[in-house]
What does this fold into?
Amino acid sequence: MAVDRRTVLQNAQLFASKGQYDAAIAEWRKLTTDAPADGTIFNSIGDLQLKRNATGDAVTAFMQAAGAFRSEGSVLKAIAAYKKILKVDPTRIEIYRHLGDLNAERGLLSSAVQDYLTLGKQYVKDGRNKEALEIYRKIVSQDPSNLDAQLRVAELCVQEGLVDEAVRMYLQLGREQSAAQQYEQAKAMYTAVLRLDPENAEAKEITGMIETGGGAPLNVSRPAKPSTAAAKPGDAGDLMAEATRRIEEGQYAGAEAMLTQLLSREPGNPEICQLLARMHLLQGNLVVALGEYRFLAGAALRAQDYGIAESLINDYLKVEPASVPMLELLGELYQERGDPATAAQHFGRAVEILLEHPEPGMPTLPAELYEKVQALAPGSAIARKLAPAFDPNAESILEPEPVAAIVEVVQVPPPEPEPEPVVMAPEPVAEMPFRLVGTSAPPVESAAVRPPVPEPVVVQVAPPVVAPSAPPLEPAPVVAAIPPSPTPPVVQPAPVAEPVDAETRYALGMAYKDMGLFDEAKEEFIFSMKDSGFFVDSCLMMALCCKEQSRPDQAIQLLEKLISDSRCRGGNAQLVRYELALLYENTGACERALGMYQSIPSFHDVPRRVEALRSQSTNGASHPDMPAPAPTSPLPIAGR
It folds into this structure.
């Protein structure tokens, strides 16, 4: 016979409210008969076990909950369950492995690396080298730029007798540090290689270069060596040949180390620069290669060395034929050569690509290039083909639908009306929207461009004012300032950084909130509110976390700031006002609650609540079990 879930839940809540936790747990266990893999059931049992101070049983229940959530694909809830285990028993270090795996699965690589590091350090401390090696390998796989983890892998491999892997890791470290011109550190890595493999050619070669050259430029006027003389190790021509050979064989790391060493000795050598650019192109590192090829081809074009310039441009276009910058440069080359028709063809091809894939931040570039086409070859086939995209009255040689699509792409929408002014400072788009008072959470930067704006406003909440007879309240340790709505900025480039995945952060925050981990939830909402699409929801959830933590004053002040923000509108604004009115009502500020309810008269159960509040006011009755409303103090703003 199936269990009546509703009755069981009611009984469990009744027993828990009376402090009869064993009976409540027994009720929850009845539900496992029909739902043996329901993580929510085990999570509730774990919470009840904590209330009866049965830590071991609570951990067992939370482990069952995490396993159930994980098996059903609820990764974020599984992460929250594992976090609860660590709060209950921090000695369960194996939990960090699960957390690292789940964070990596969700794409939260920085969190995954931190979890693995915590576990790896503990393994090393306990002398569990094999387990530590496995964890540090995971870190390197998730974050190949983590040199500390690479070094730890190399050292552990030496201790475990894994010489080949240790050599590979030390070589990689040497290459990376050599490329960064950290020659002493690079020498230490190559020396470690030679201790393990005394005949390693790369280590011997680079170590010799560092010892003899030390990164100092060679004397360019040195006398030429006789052709019959044997090339010494570290000779520039010798290294160029070796680097070329390695590039052809796909050994890019070693080749890059050699080329970087050569560049440190002969800065700006065009042959070395061209070889380095070609290596990046073959590696598929198109962003870096594009910058290098544009520089080299542009320099050749300015020197009127058209053959080299065309060769460089065509080398890049073979790999990336839709590169607008290189097509534009090729057009300029033919224009200087006195071949306007061919130049117009290349400019026109660039325009076609831009119309199909507009370049962010460069809305006028298609029109500028089209003007060049018209100036160079008016009436040509490419000019007639592009004309309808810029002049609707022009005759088209394209089909009607594609022309309409192109016109739609290049039309600039009319500017939106400016929002009503809000008495707040402009929001720094790429910075943390606020900081938490009393925490050390580091700010996370974004790849978004941003204007030069003042520092974000930091709001610190003063302790609530209470009547003298009331017991003193503990000051609120965590309160955030809500950033104002953005104003149209003057765009300036900002340093590129890994963007914050707001959706993932928000979902993880919701999972923490649902599992009762309110501090952890608020940390995630701090990140997700950086994204305008999640700003209002994140602020609201922050306030609800404060409410759950019995910090209504913090919640009220957050929501009061939120409703004054221009991004809080529509259905979200109604929900924010409703939650704020509930907080006013629950803290005894009935007049303020009534006013807020009246701003959303038909929302949810507002009519009933308004009627109840008016009835209380008419009868002169105070809200049951509610303290008198404390005077609301203004938010002190840092720096004012």
Q: What stands out?
A: DSSP finds 29 helices and no strands in the chain. Residues 214-234, 396-499, 622-640 have pLDDT under 50 and may be disordered. Residues 261-410 form a domain with the Serine Threonine Protein Phosphatase 5, Tetratricopeptide repeat fold (CATH 1.25.40.10).
